[in-house]
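Quick start: read one record
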Amino acid sequence: MTLKNRVVVAPMHQYSAVKGFATDWHLMNAGRYAAGGAGLVIMESTKVERRGCGTVGDLGLWDDAFVPGLRRCVDFIKLHNAVPGIQLGHSGRKARRFRPWEGGAPLEPSPEIDDWEAWELVSASALSAPPTDPLPRALARAEIPEVIERWGQAARRANEAGFEVLDIHGAHGYLIHQFLSPFSNLRNDQYGGSEQNRMLFCIEVVESVRAHWPASKPLFLRLSVEDDAGWGPDQSVALARIVKPKGVDVIDCSSGGMRGSPVVSAGPVTYGYQVPYAERLRKDVGIMSMAVGLIVHADQAEQILQQGRADLIALARELLYNPNWPMDAAQKLGIDRNFARCPRRRPTGSPNARRP
């Protein structure tokens, strides 16, 4: 796969799905980043099963019915010469919450949630964090293969929708991370205890996804390379060495989410504070890495690449402020004075629609 540049739209929750289905908001939101010149547009963490939804507004891919709405977004991204990607996730014990601007607290039963019992909190262990949160149920050993298979089936649907890149969300305190971290995993079976055992759930998710995701399409794995709760760079390197030959092409390097954020192990929280994680994975594992986190300026992003610290640059908040950041960066770096790299406007919709 070839990208027109190394600017990546990081997956950002929109909290705007209706019972898991994509809406016009998702089309507009993904479309503006594609039209803004990004090489790769990764849509938000899309849930592999109903229990995995963090809020009432999470996107879903646990049913074939979700495919057409996402394909609509894919087609529009491709129309603007950008590559469409999607992140697959499961919130685990961080599910069933109010949206951030509503406070983010645990939800209470209400008439608008007609499947409250099905929206169950599950995790690696029956531990809540913080302790005042509702207690999740530890997944039984016998049901773990079914959960893992749901990742694979969601990957199949993502391929059917036309996505070209898939990012497994193994970070930020969500389900895969809940298995990885000794802070949240107190199991005494093959999925808990030793570092190797705690990696098993993630490894099997990778295997399931790769079994349903074409070998020709890149696979990313997002990790909280440092979570300040017992999972750190050494463990992330060890896991990356295992999953690389299983078909993971890029480690998406973030941090935190288990005991809160930000994580300050890499130093003060300032421009590019998580870049050392991407640099470490790239160097020690020999795998491509994606840097993310307070990457703000064009020359800053370019320097990260030129110094060999990461292979891809993911932006989030800066693209919220300015969806045309990639085109702006090209101007500031002096490589597209005539705006030749800007996506061309292409007619869409009804041929009878009025156009300026």
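The first helix runs from residue 24 to 35.
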